[in-house]
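Protein modeling request. Please complete all fields; requests missing the sequence field cannot be processed.
Requester role: graduate student
Desired output: 3D structure, token encoding
Chains: 1
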Amino acid sequence: MLYNLFLVLRVLFYQFLEFISFNNKLNYIEELEKTIEKYNKINDNSVSRTTNDIGTLFRKNDKKSEGFSLDNLNGIIDIDIENKTINVGGKTRFYDILNYTLKYNLMPKIVPELSSITVGGAISGISIESSSFKYGWVHDTIVDMDVLTADGDVLYCTRDNENADLFNSIPNSYGTLGYVTRAKIQLIDAKKYVKLINHKCENITEAFEFIKIAVNNKDTDFIDAVAYSEFNIIVVMGFLCDSPYNDNGSCELSNYPNNGIYYESIKKLRYDTMTIYDYFWRWDADMFWGVTDVPILKNKWFRWCFGRCILNTRVLRALQRLFQSYQVKNNGKKEKIIQDLGVPGENVEEFYNWICNNINKYPIWICPVIPKKTNTSLWTFNENKLYFDIGVFVRKETNKEENYYNKLIEKKLLELNGNKCFYSDTFLSKKDFNVLINPDKYQCIKKKYDINNRFGDLYNKVINQNI
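Delivered output (467 residues):
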């Protein structure tokens, strides 16, 4: 308990320091040299990355090897307004990138929904958001990147240069092939506001048909959906605009978290409007609905007083650990299910119905994605067709064996040619795990860039959680 309290205070302290001292500009060459110098001093055969950031890794990660840090590779290197790209350090958060690019009326094509997510993490760990139906995964929006390999070299990688195999293998590799030290990200024109239409559907067939129609609507900029029960699904369509005013001249901007909880507002409002900044961090204030079982965090006066100072992913992850023992004591035996589950569009209705019948816990997040320009070796969703991410972020009452429901979900996912993000707990056998990656390609690229296995094996890192 004391350690977790210290963790909360530490996160708040670092957040305050960053607020008063964060320098948008990064001297990349100088900081990279420092990183390489420290890395080359490590003599251990096994090496892991360390960080002062709490991050968004929801599975355990018990590092037992000597570590190095990339935390200094945090900031903006340069921005190309004409070609709409931005160069950033690998540890730069999308939160800081968005704040910087909005000054130029630009924004990344994909802005992951939690403010603690970094560029390197989003590339190597798979990340999407509500514009992914237009632009694909985060790694689809990367022009080029530098990757620190196990022997201490930093390689310049594009999708078609001599290091293309590494470029295409970083997504879903979780640092076992190398670490992103720099990335150039594609940008698009931004507008000041987003107008939302919340369309209620009464059954799953109607909901997914509506999403498919919305995906083909060239005017729509953002699409996601939330299921509040098996037969109550609300599809949220977002439209970029320069003015918040409605046709009748009225204007009422929503501000989450100060004015309430976003996921609860969807049920009440047919239309909504917010700034582009507030739109991108609409889920961040409550980590979707991951911490709203802590009463103080739902209190309207608490939210009004502290706003995003407290209500952001980095602080909430620390608070979550602080209250974890309290939750277990007062909630009885509950299984944590934090899973982003990907399924092809043709199988999504069957999977959704299965989740409703077997998990029966809500809300459920639904996000469409169509990959672009992708040839990723370790991530199976590469075809230029419609896929869906089904986000199940709940605690399920159980008297079953440990991790029963998580394992059940994984079994069904494999039956439907699905895949999952490994940031969360994973319990697959080696045989089933290999279905989700290309094991032959992985071993080939591993031998080329990490022949001595300094960065560890992907299966051991994800399943055994000891690297």
